[in-house]
């Protein structure tokens, strides 16, 4: 009987603990001090307090340590380019209503400006200032006022990205045209070879592909870029064939390069025309 009671007690203990474990998994939680922000498990309506974002007293100037934490926030947002968030500034109740509304809005704007400066898509970020209208602690105490002075990150929806358009780089007379190309995340870039010799395209020393050639037939190699960053490439044999692909969370315009292939075309007569058009237009 004693063993049976022990077994029942253990079973009940395990059952009691199980929901707690499940609730923790995939939960959307504010980062603990010294820990990075994680958006896994977060959904629209969830809000995270960014306790490591601080400003100078009565100012919207970010402290240096705040930028270190916001760099982590930026990385998380760039890895989740369809998440749209509100950056919310909150204050304690010292000073007037209008003063605190203005201060909280300026602080939200400052955090947004910094995130954009390090590469976050501005369309993901909506700054909002609430002043002292949404306290989370008692403003009658110093500790409560410190808790109320905060920045929150609220998930407000999903950002619909414009579909990335495939674009081309043409190789002729042993040069890539255009030599630098800015594209949004998700773009497929195609290199078209109009030289009478093959080229080996490699990225920062990592081999990509050989673009074989039958003179002036325009054989090609394509690569899709799913992560923001700068990708330098060059032909491993012909060093003048080089360039860079700059992949951004979003772009406002893109370059189209057109090169009609003419019968009997030679590399010396090759021409490429380039135009800039609004992205999504």
UniProtKB/TrEMBL annotation:
CC terms in the record's Gene Ontology section: cell outer membrane
Annotated keywords: Cell outer membrane, Copper, Membrane, Metal-binding, Signal
Residues in the signal sequence: 1-23
Gene3D superfamilies on file: Cupredoxins - blue copper proteins, OmpA-like domain
Gene Ontology MF term list: copper ion binding; electron transfer activity
Pfam families in the record: Copper-bind, OmpA
Subcellular location: Cell outer membrane
Domain of life: Bacteria
Keyword Signal: yes
Limits of the OmpA-like domain: 42-159
Cross-referenced PANTHER family: LIPOPROTEIN YIAD-RELATED, STATOR ELEMENT OF FLAGELLAR MOTOR COMPLEX
The protein's name in its UniProt record: Outer membrane protein OmpA-like peptidoglycan-associated protein
Protein species of origin: Zhongshania antarctica
């Amino acid at each position: 009987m004693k063993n049976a009671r022990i077994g029942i007690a253990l079973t009940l203990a395990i059952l009691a603990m199980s929901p707690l474990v499940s609730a923790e998994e995939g939960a959307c939680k504010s980062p603990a001090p010294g820990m990075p922000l994680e958006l896994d498990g977060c959904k629209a309506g969830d809000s995270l307090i960014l306790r490591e974002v601080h400003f100078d007293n009565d100012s919207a100037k970010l402290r240096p340590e705040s930028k270190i934490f916001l760099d982590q926030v930026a990385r998380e947002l760039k890895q989740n380019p369809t998440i749209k968030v509100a950056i919310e500034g909150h204050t304690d109740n010292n000073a007037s209503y209008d003063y605190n509304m203005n201060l909280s809005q300026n602080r939200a704007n400052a955090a947004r400006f910094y995130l954009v400066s390090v590469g976050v898509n501005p369309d993901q970020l909506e700054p909002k200032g609430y002043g002292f209208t949404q306290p989370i602690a008692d403003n009658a105490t110093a500790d409560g006022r410190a808790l109320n002075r905060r920045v929150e990150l609220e998930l407000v929806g999903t950002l619909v990205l414009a579909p990335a358009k495939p674009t081309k780089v043409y190789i002729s007379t042993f040069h890539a045209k255009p030599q630098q190309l800015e594209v949004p995340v998700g773009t497929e870039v195609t290199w078209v070879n109009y030289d009478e010799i093959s080229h080996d395209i490699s990225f920062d020393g990592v081999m990509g592909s050989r673009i074989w050639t039958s003179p002036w037939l325009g054989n090609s190699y394509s690569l899709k870029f799913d992560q923001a960053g700068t990708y330098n490439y060059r032909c491993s044999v012909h060093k003048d064939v080089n360039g860079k692909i700059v992949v951004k969370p979003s772009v406002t315009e893109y370059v189209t390069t057109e090169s009609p292939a003419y019968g009997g075309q030679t590399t010396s007569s090759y021409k490429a025309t380039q135009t800039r058009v609004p992205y999504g237009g």
